[in-house]
Specification:
globular, alpha/beta, FAD/NAD(P)-binding domain, Enolase-like, domain 1, 19 strands, five-stranded antiparallel sheet, 3 domains, 357 residues, homodimer
Chain lengths: 357, 357
Amino acid sequence: MRQIDSGRVGWEPFDQLLIATGASPFFPDVPGGDAQGIHGLSTLQSGIEVRKAIDQDSPQRAVIVGGGYIGLEMAEALVLRGMEVSLVEKMPQVMGTLDPDMGALVSEALRDIGVALYLGESLESFDVRRGRVQAVVTDQRTLPADLVILGLGVRPNSTLAAEAEIPLGEKGGIRVNERMQTAVEGVWAAGDCVESFHLVSRRPFYVALGTVANKQGRVAGINLGGGYATFPGVVGTAVSKVCAVEVARTGLQEAELQRLGWEYVSAKIDSKTRVGYYPNAGPITVKVLAERDSGRLLGGQIVGIEGAAKRIDVLATALHAGFTVQEMIHLDLSYAPPYSPVWDPVLIAARQAAALV
Amino acid sequence: MRQIDSGRVGWEPFDQLLIATGASPFFPDVPGGDAQGIHGLSTLQSGIEVRKAIDQDSPQRAVIVGGGYIGLEMAEALVLRGMEVSLVEKMPQVMGTLDPDMGALVSEALRDIGVALYLGESLESFDVRRGRVQAVVTDQRTLPADLVILGLGVRPNSTLAAEAEIPLGEKGGIRVNERMQTAVEGVWAAGDCVESFHLVSRRPFYVALGTVANKQGRVAGINLGGGYATFPGVVGTAVSKVCAVEVARTGLQEAELQRLGWEYVSAKIDSKTRVGYYPNAGPITVKVLAERDSGRLLGGQIVGIEGAAKRIDVLATALHAGFTVQEMIHLDLSYAPPYSPVWDPVLIAARQAAALV
C-alpha cells in the first residue's frame, strides 16, 4: 500500500477491502505510440491535458483513432474547435455497438459535420519527428496529424486483483457475484474493473460506464457496511451524440445474436421525434430485434435528432421486464404533439417486429 | 343513418358495426353559456374557429375556464399571441390529474409566463351584451373577457349507443371487452366514446386521448375484419406543456389511491435533466408513488424543463411490468452528460421511494 500524500509504502491490514481500480484506455502497441501529441481520454485530468495541448499548440489537423463513444464525442468537440478532423475505424462503420446499418447513419452524421472518415482501415503506426507525432499511418494511407486522439476502448484495471490471486472473469474484469463480492472472503469490487452480467444474454459482459459503476458502488458499499443489496446485471444500454444527432442502444445487437445462435427478427422504422406538423419535428430511426417465434424483445437501437436517444430507456425497461414485442404494442406511452407522434416511434418499431415474429 | 353528402336519411343493414363517435367538450349549463366569443376545443374545426375569431376581433383579454391540458395549451398559445390571459380553476391547483404539490409547480409555470390564476373559484355565469360575452363571473369575482376558452374536459358521445340499448360503463362510456366488442353481437366501439380499463387500479377508467383511441381503433379493426387482437388497457399516461415547462403523469395519483383505500409511500425529488455542468441542464421534479410494504410502483408525475416529460414513459413501462421501486433502482437506463445525471431522475425517485416502503 502506498499513501498518496506521504509516499509511504507499507502493509495495511483490513477486515473488508473494496477494489475500485477502474479501467484504462487501451494504447495500441504500435511504432511511435508513445510520441507527444497522442492522447487517450479517460480521466478529468486527461481531458484537461488535451485541452491544454490544443490551447498551446493550436493543432489544425486532428486524427481520431476509433469510432466509439470517445471518438464520436471528440469528433464533435474538435470540429466545434474549428479543426480539420479525420477518424480512422477498422470496422466498416463507426459505433461498433450498433448494427452496421444503424452505424451507417452515425457515419453519415459525422460526414455531415465535416469529419473525414476512413472506415475499414487499421492503425499501423505513427510517424514521429523529434518526439512529436506527425502522422497516423493506416494499412491504406498516411494521415498528417498535429493531434491524435485514441478512442480504442478501455480495459479493466484488474492486474492488482489478478496478482493477489483474485479470480478474473472471461472478459478480463474481476469476477464478482450479485453482492459485488469477489471469490475471496472480505474482498469486494465494483465499477469499471469488474465483469458484469448481461440480463438478456445471461452471460458475462464487460461494460465501463459511469451509471453502472455508480450503482455497483452503492451495492458494494451497502454490503461491506454489513447491509444487504444485490446488483442483478445490465442490459447494455448506452447513449452518445455527435452534434445534432443522438445515438442510443440497448440489449443485444445482431452480431451477438448470431454468435449466440439465437434466431431473431429485425424491424427498422423511420418516424419523427414529434408530430410532423410541430416545430422542430425531425427524423428518428428505431431498430428493434426480437426473438423469432416468441417475440421476446432482444435489443434496440435509435439514431435521430434531439429527443430521439432517451427513448432507448423504454426499450431498456422492456428488456428488464422480459416483454415481447407483441406486448409492447400496447404500452401506454405518452403522446402530445410536442413530444411524439400518436404512436411513439419505439412502438411503431415494436409493432413492425411483432408482424414478423 | 344520414348520408353526409346527399343528406338522405334511411336505414342501412350491417353485419359488423363500429361505433366511433368520439367525445365532446363539456359546456357548462350556466347563464350566458351560449354567447358569442365562448369556445370549446375538440376538433380541428373548433381550433380554426378560435383562430379566426382572434384574427377578426383582436381580443385583448382572454379568460380560460379549466386548468387541464386544453387550458394549459391554450394559455401558452394566447400568451404567445400577446393577450392578457386569466385562468379560472375550481380546484386549488391546475392539472387535476397531478397531485396538488405537483400541480402547484405547473401553476407557478403559468404565473411565470404572465397568466393570472384564479384557483379554487367556480364558474357561475357569463355576462353577455348583444349576444357577445363580456365577462366571466365566478363565485368570487367578475373577469372582463373578450374571448373565453372552455377547457372543462370532455364527455363520451355515447347517447346513440345508449339509445340503441348498448350498455354503457360506470364512467359513461360504451362498455367494451378487450376485443373492443360491445355487449351487442356484431357491434364494436373504440376511441373516446368507450370506457377503458385501468391496469393499475384494475377498474374501469375513462380517458380521451388520441394515442389510446388509435390503438383501440386498430384492435377493433383487426377484430371486425375477422382477425384477433386485444387491447389490455391503459396505465393513465399523459403529457402536456406550458411554454418551457413540461408536465407528465402516469398511473394513479394520491387522491385515487385514497379513494381505493390503498396504502402508499410517496417520494418527490428535485434533480437535473442533464449533468449539472452540461449546457441547458435544468430542473426536473419527479414524484413516485409506491404501494406500502410491497413497493409496487403505483404512479409517477414529472414537471421540468425540456427533456423532462418523456421520462414518464419509463414509469409507464414499469407500471405495465408491475415493477417494484426496489427493482427499478437497477434499471439500466441510459446515461451520458447531454441526456441525464449518472442516476436518471426517475431512478433517484424510485430509490427514495424504496427507502420508504
